[in-house]
Specification:
The protein is built from twelve helices and eleven strands. The protein is α+β, with helices and mostly antiparallel strands. Keywords: DNA-binding, Transcription, Transcription regulation.
Amino acid sequence: MEIQLKSNAPGIMEETMIEDGFFILKFQNETNDNQKIIRDINSSYIQFHFCVKGNTKFNFNNGSYSIPLPDKKSLLLYNPQRDLPMNLEMEKDSSLISLLISIKKFHSLFSKEADYIPFLGEGNRDKKYYTDADISPSMTVILNQILNYNLHRSIKLLYFKGKSYELLSLYFNKPEDADIDQCPFLVDEENVLKIKQAKEIIISRMAEPPTLQELSKEIGLPLGKLKDGFKQIYGEPVYTFLFDYKMEVARQLLATGSHNVNEVGLKVGYSTASHFIAAFKKKFGTTPKKYVMNLS
């Protein structure tokens, strides 16, 4: 990530790279004057800012508008369409902790499906997201531990890493019945899991698969998101994927020699042999019978 740091006074900011794509920044203005700090951040990063003490103001578009961040408040910033450099004005006797996390790294903290999520999350990736929230007492404890740590420098990285993860866990800890919109980035994980469920459903019922509308209702995902997401994850529309899967199952069954053409056709959902033969030929360029003969 490109970094450019400018400050009116030394010692205001301390930056630590926790992991690739994950930074923690400590800002402490212990001078008698307000301080301005600028740091470049590109559009692939989510920004979490926590005002531990005092007041900080975030300026945007060369100061054309600003967002105040008062004592005990947090601010989440994300805009995939443009870079959001930090342009801060810190009042005297103010402290701020910031976490900068790439969107891919962020997803990997929450989900094993992280490799799929960026390809699915069109709705969230294309929208900027700004929100402020109160800092809870438990988060305040962690933030002060980060600010005032007094441990051997050899364990600083490990300590900061643990505290950063703990801070994010508390930040996103919501009641089970909370509105998922409170955490828009994690909606993508839910959608990926639903689409994987859809794939398992059509495979398990390939002889009599549900319609797209029935499948959409069963997994609890709007039809448009099901169709678009399925193609993004598996590379094909739902029923193209199912057709290819059924033909591969049919080919393997024929290769065993333990089922005739009619039996294989029924197993993969064709009520008549002629329809199965036509489908098999469309996929493999030969009839089931000729395929078996060529094997022997």
